[in-house]
Write a structure and sequence with these properties.
alpha+beta; Butyryl-CoA Dehydrogenase, subunit A, domain 3; three-stranded antiparallel sheet; 6 helices; 6 strands
């Protein structure tokens, strides 16, 4: 079986390359992120969090030896389900891109002659497009809540007494913002690809024949 690389000069081949690149970028920016909340007390304490973003903190902090202030700071929020859903969508998209690109290059003749393969490709693309839009929406909501719970006004302090809570510094969420944008961009790429794949199916070809016959 000869490799047919000319498919990557066609829209369906080009779209698969773009989808593969953007899928990897989307989940990579999520799993490689490490954030922190820095409590700038007399004895500094840094709370770090990363994928899958199950933020659990129950720590006693020293606000100052002269005041004998040792309150306990608490955070209890779990965003792991949304983060895993988003990353799983990216991994599924990546694996399907690799699989279908092998089909395109090694079995192109069968793809063009077997009506079932284009239909399967079309419906799988619909499925993954739905995965992207739903997981991106869920992850965008989780990220908004993550920013909220890491704000100084939300963090719970126990046993603070007359002491003043120490200032905090929170890491930037810019790379996670990018991951959300990439998620919706992936949905756009997969939804747009449906038109090119539809033209490969018998539905489009029968419609073209019917239109030609009427003329």
């Amino acid at each position: 079986m000869d490799l047919n690389l000319s498919v990557f000069q066609e829209p369906r081949g080009v779209m698969r390359i773009l989808q593969l690149m953007f899928a990897i970028s989307a989940f990579a920016t999520t799993v490689n992120y490490t954030g922190f909340i820095d409590f700038m007390c007399d004895v500094p304490y840094k709370f770090s969090f990363e994928y899958p973003f199950n933020l659990l903190l129950n720590q006693e902090l020293n606000l100052g030896a002269k005041n004998n202030c040792t309150p306990r700071v608490k955070i209890s929020s779990d965003f792991s389900s949304d983060a895993k859903f988003f990353v799983a969508s990216g991994v599924i998209a990546m694996l399907y891109c690799l699989f279908i690109m092998i089909v395109y290059t090694k079995f192109d003749n069968k793809y063009r002659t077997d009506n079932r393969l284009p239909v399967f490709d079309f419906f799988m693309t619909v499925f993954i497009a739905v995965l992207w839009v739903s997981s991106s929406a869920s992850w965008a909501n989780a990220l908004a809540n993550m920013k909220y719970i890491s704000h100084d006004d939300y963090i719970q302090w126990d046993n603070l007494g007359i002491c003043t809570r120490c200032p905090i510094s929170v890491s930037s969420f810019s790379s996670l913002n990018v991951s959300v944008i990439l998620g919706f961009l992936n949905f756009f790429l997969w939804a747009t690809d449906l038109w090119f794949l539809y033209k490969e199916t018998t539905w489009f070809q029968v419609g073209q024949i019917s239109t030609s016959g009427e003329i």
